[in-house]
Amino acid sequence: MHYNIALLPGDGIGPEVIREAVKAVDAVCARFGHTVRYTTGWVGACAIDRCGNPYPAETHALCMESDAVLFGAVGDPRYDNDPTAKVRPEQGLLAMRKQLGLYANLRPVETFAALADKSPLKRERVEGADFLCIRELTGGMYFGEKGRRDSGDTAYDTCIYSRSEVERILELAFTYAARRRGHLTVVDKANVLETSRLWRQVAQEMAPQHPDVQVDYMYVDNAAMQLIRDPKAFDVLVTENTFGDILTDEASCITGSMGLLASASVGAHTSLFEPIHGSWPQAAGKGIANPLAAILSAAMLFEYAFGLGAEGKAIRQAVAASLDAGVVTEDLADGGKASSTAEVGDWIAQFINDNK
Ligand code: IPM
Ligand code: MN
Question: Which residue has the least CA distance to atom 9 on ligand 1?
């Protein structure tokens, strides 16, 4: 098959990790007989520098006409300590999610045997943990009305959800849970928040239509604790935007390094694939960024956007092999020999090539 992939490397370490993901995509395509055309677009601080807009119309047009989007990261220290900045790189990502209708963010947390000792949790707690976080991505406080009053001395962000927004993300969560181990945990704060009570009500209404899925409900503060106390107790976890942002960062370190967590954002239009680690500007250009999350995002791209399971698996196997072989960046090297970002990417592409 032939595929058009939009590359949006973005800021910070985005470009260098996306470069390695492209090597893996090329290797898999060569092995399985696919062809790809890449078109690069601007998003984030680099887009603001070029044209003043973090998600320019031409980038949106490119995403809309592509079969999938491979995205790096956005963010720049120039904006971090400037609360008065009118335009921010992160707005590019939020606009992209909204305009592409990407209402669901899927963040699988899997543990790799070779990394069990890198986890901040005890080996026996993490080994075998395998769950999927589904984060609602286009609603809640991120997109509700926000502003200032009292001459700027009072600020507010509104958390708002409609029934249809809740239904579509829960429907997806039920579907994924049924395909996995049939266990869905709905995470909310229904003891305090009205939006959470709507989520819980809708979930309870939907549950009888999904008899193959066992549903339980957990308050987000408790979920934050249970995730590190007993990560193996989770199969599919679904939650609203802000809770999902926080819990998935927490969940990401369970695997031993945030540099391993990939994600897919799916919804109305072209799906987007991205590492969740962010732009890490201090490391940009140094060749120390871990490319595995971006490479695993490419695996998700084959699986989720193109329905090509064998291709995704070939990438995952290569990643696991690189970890077993100790070909890792410094975050995983444990004082031992660290490879550069490009060396890890080259090793993985080579492994995919050699294992035809
Ligand atoms: C993420 C990031 C983004 C978010 C930022 C960069 C806007 O933290 O994808 O988790 O908060 O959603
Ligand atoms: Mn985040």
Answer: 276
